[in-house]
Write a structure and sequence with these properties.
single chain, 126 residues, alpha/beta, Glutaredoxin, 5 helices, 22% strand
Length: 126
Amino acid sequence: MPTKTITESDLTATIRDNDIVLLDFWAAWCGPCRAFAPVFERASEEHPDIVFGKIDTEAEQALAAGFRITSIPTLMAFRDGIIVFAQPGALGAPQLEQVISGVRALDMDQVRAEVEAQRAAREQSA
């Protein structure tokens, strides 16, 4: 499946309605972003069950700010609506495959339990 341009209007539905979503925060003027783009595109073709979304930080400044993007490219991975990976910097194909394998292998019951424990701890300290 080719990469998909993600905007503020379809971000929530994209994350909610798909099991795994990878987001590439990028800008046209960014050299490392341009170097990572074909790697991301090839991976999207090799993994048709995953949504590969691209967020142009110039066009979608509110999204970039909302996710606190301070360096691009930044790759984020969501599984079952939960952010499970976020890292700035261009990845090579082997590193991106490693991220994809790691996201696929997650025990989501454990992840949900950890998220709930963190939420409860924040509420308790507030």
